[in-house]
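@channel sequence for tomorrow's demo:
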Amino acid sequence: MNPVAVVGRVFLDFLAAIGRVSLFTFNGVRHAFAPPIYLRLIGRQMMVIGYYSLPVVGLTALFTGMVLALQIYLGSSRLNAESAVAWIVVLGITRELGPVLGGLMVAGRVASAMAAEIGTMRVTEQIDALTTLSTNPYKYLVAPRMIAGVVTLPALILVADIIGVMGGYLVSTQKLGFNQAIYLKNTYDFLEATDVISGLVKASVFGFIIALMGCYHGFHSKGGAQGVGRATTDAVVSASILILVANYFVTELFFSGK
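structure tokens (generated this afternoon):
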């Protein structure tokens, strides 16, 4: 085979995939702002994305904060800088670890479920039935999930930030011997509103990505049960990669000048 042709074919397929995702995103966002708005469907998706994801995200944040405090203490003790534990924990959780790890956990749980549900509807021709009944599939299936992802994930990550900081506080005060009042004072003094806001903005972006990838891969699945399984895997992988990519650009947006 001609290697130039292979490279060209891969490049063209990549451009075609970007075009399909862009058109799907445009249609989803357009229908999210156009009436009618299915509030009941949005509320149901908010429960699925937020409330039902709280246990796994909360446990992830708790033990992340605990391990972070322990590791920072072990490293900073070599430089006699143990006082840095409190502010590094709170900055690490609110800026990065809370939204990123929370987003990845939600992607594994929610994006796969969305892709499986919509993919099953696609291969069983239920989406075609919606079109026959004059119900727009983007309006009924995609827009509520996008809205719920953008709105719900910041609230979920805010709870995860609190739990993660509490995990670091428990390890630092109960195991490492830090004074409780001094630890809380250091946490409060070094935390700024920008740190929390940047994490919540990241959460909104991640929520949009999770909903978009779950809906996109489910919407374009084909090939029966095997195609639904492939769409589920692709949704989780693509959402996770895009979360890590978007994390860099949002961080660059907020902190490049500091």
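heads up for whoever presents: Residues 242 and 253 are 16 Å apart (CA to CA).
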